[in-house]
Design a protein that fits this description.
The chain is an alpha/beta fold. It contains 21 helices and 17 strands. The radius of gyration is 26 Å and the shape is globular.
Length: 608
């Protein structure tokens, strides 16, 4: 009878383990043909756990640890479509600030990840003391089976993807590895960069719109979670972004195929890429990892040309390590939450209305030419806007995450309209170039109900290309014309595009291109669409999540018709090379040295 109880107990735990494993891998989109590898490795681990099941404390600790890591991975996957890394451990300090976001992506079904532990605790008192195997034999068998399975998977063709997305192999690989890529900047890499800098510089002053903003103030507004899908669109006859739409129609250059290029730093990466024209990293966030690097992006360049560079953000200075890295990025002065009078908070920061209202007087007090960089907050996930600020009347079926997003961006658009009017009344409008762009997507893949509403709104399937598409609007008062550019571009292209407008020859290290004067666009991606993926003027190429080129997909950018992936191999190799090269340069902290090498003999050298 006791043996039978023991068998029932073990069978129940095994089934519970299998259930949580299946739930985890299905929830993280593990391809069904690779699911077996995850089941095998986690089953072996469960066998190891059974060695300790009679020592309830050890068993509970190990099982709880496993469940918590799986739960963390699942939440991280819903937000970033990847697993957690030990290299991101410092970001745990941000958890308290984003609890509302975490709660918005948790599902009640996630309790399945703890089902084996719950079952064990409920059955612990009824477990018999009959041992139906010998501990030493079990240890010996496990020591033989486990290495065999891991070695068998590790050297298989499929391991490229397994080490990234199979739970145990991924975390083992993550812990024992520092970085398997060669991050040393080689002579060929340096030559490639210098040659590219030479090509850009030789474009000279004959470029279209070169110097149109010469001696104008430059204002950049990075808008939280603004997607391009909503530019020029109405919901049930209600214009969602009337003020931004009006800007697009008058005195503006609008880039309709502009894409986010984040790593794992989210909003901070959008800043990092846009200001520096350098790719972020996926093994941490650039603002922490490269805190004291010598950068030479837009703030330093504008200061070099007589501007005062100032940043404005209505949240904590410590969040994303902004207080420490902003001086290294080149900002003369930065204003954060403590510098503002805090009124109503939306999500977790200062209301954008109060933010702009209080920032304009700070801008006006700056003497001489200004470069102002502003980061908004009110349209942040989970789009929890107060009822008094909602203006869009929603259908019943859209009163979900999608509807909340529409309300949030509509509110922020109204605030932007007020901001423009305030600039005019304070005399800060006519002699400025005002840039608006979204930092990253708003509606991801974590909410099926919202995706259904969004696809009804769009009238087509919601793809990664849609999700990553953010607007870029460069408003130039008095320009006398408006143009829409169809070229594919990314946040890495903002700096060289603005240098052209400001009349500054691009003699700096930039990985992007001037979108106004380039015919072919190229957007390298490494998050959501993983490293090696790219978008050009014609094609969207998504590397397979198992990392195998032949398993990838490609389709036309506009019509989404399938494309032969072999035609994308060169683009795949270029995308991979550019991101790896960018990492080598930042790892070696060699940006200033490369710029100095380029200018050698001119007598112009940057300070280290």
């Amino acid at each position: 009878m006791k043996i039978r109880k023991e068998l029932i107990y073990i069978a129940s735990i095994v089934l519970a383990y299998a259930l949580k494993t299946l739930y985890f891998y299905i929830s993280t989109d593990m391809p069904l043909d690779k699911l077996v590898y995850g089941l095998v490795t986690i089953s072996v681990f469960s066998a190891i756990l059974f060695l300790f099941h009679r020592n309830s404390k050890i068993y509970i600790i190990l099982t709880l640890l496993l469940s918590v890591i799986m739960f963390g991975d699942l939440l991280y996957y819903r937000y970033f479509m990847g697993f957690l890394s030990i290299k991101l451990i410092h970001q745990a300090t941000f958890v308290g600030s984003v609890t509302s976001i975490i709660f918005s992506i948790v599902k009640i079904t996630d309790l399945i990840l703890f089902v084996d532990l719950i079952l064990f605790l409920s059955m612990k008192k009824r477990i018999g003391k009959v041992v139906i195997y010998k501990r030493k034999s079990a240890i010996l068998i496990t020591m033989i089976i486990l290495p065999s399975i891991i070695l068998g998977i590790s050297f298989s063709e499929i391991y490229t993807g397994i080490k990234k997305y199979e739970f145990f192999n991924y975390h083992i690989f993550d812990i024992i590895s520092t970085d398997f890529e060669n991050n040393r900047l080689m002579s060929d890499d340096r030559k490639f960069v210098l040659d590219e800098m030479e090509k850009r510089t030789n474009m000279g002053i004959e470029s279209q719109y070169f110097g149109v903003g010469n001696d104008r103030d430059l204002i950049i507004v990075q808008i939280e979670s603004l997607q391009n899908d909503f530019i020029g669109k109405s919901y049930e006859g209600q214009e969602i972004l009337p003020n931004l739409n009006a800007l697009v129609q008058k005195d503006s250059l609008y880039f309709s195929n502009y894409y986010q290029q984040l790593g794992k730093g989210n909003t901070s990466d959008a800043e990092f890429v846009s200001l520096n024209s350098i790719y972020p990293i996926t093994t941490g966030n650039a603002y922490n990892v490269y805190e004291k690097n010598a950068f030479y992006g837009l703030p330093w360049i504008m200061r070099e040309h007589g501007y005062t560079a100032t940043s404005y953000h209505g949240y904590q200075a410590s969040f994303w390590n902004r207080e420490n890295i902003y001086p290294f990025l080149g900002f003369d002065q930065s204003y954060f939450e403590d510098d503002y009078i805090m009124g109503e908070k939306i999500v977790f920061g200062l209301d954008d209305h109060d933010f702009f209202n209080q920032s304009v007087p700070l801008m006006k007090n700056i003497e001489g030419k200004r470069f102002d960089f502003m980061v908004t907050l009110s349209s942040h996930k989970p789009f929890d806007l107060p009822e008094s600020k909602k203006n869009i009347v929603l259908n019943e079926e859209d009163q979900n995450y999608f509807g909340s997003y529409v309300q949030s961006v509509n509110y922020v658009d109204g605030v932007i309209g007020d901001f423009i009017e305030q600039l005019k009344s304070e005399g800060l409008y006519d002699n400025s170039i005002i840039v608006f762009y979204g930092d990253h997507y708003g509606i991801g893949v974590e909410n099926a109900e919202a995706i259904d509403s969004l696809e009804r709104f769009l009238g087509h399937e919601y793809t990664h290309e849609d999700m990553l598409n953010i607007p870029l609007i460069v408003h130039i008062p008095g320009l006398g014309t408006s143009e829409t550019y169809d070229i594919s571009g990314g946040q890495v292209d903002l700096l060289p595009t603005l240098l052209n407008l400001m009349g500054i020859r691009n003699e700096y290290l930039t990985f992007g291109r001037d979108l106004i004067n380039s015919e072919q666009g190229f957007v390298a991606s490494q998050t959501f669409m993983e490293k090696g993926s790219f978008i050009d003027n014609d094609v969207v190429f998504e590397i397979s999540r198992d990392g195998i080129f032949e398993n990838s997909i490609a389709y036309t950018r506009d019509s989404h018709e399938p494309v032969d992936i072999e035609l994308c191999r060169a683009g795949y190799e270029l995308s991979t090379y550019m991101i790896n090269l960018s990492k080598k340069i930042t790892e070696s902290d060699s940006i200033v040295q490369i710029i100095n090498d380029f200018n050698y003999g001119s007598g112009q050298f940057l300070k280290e």
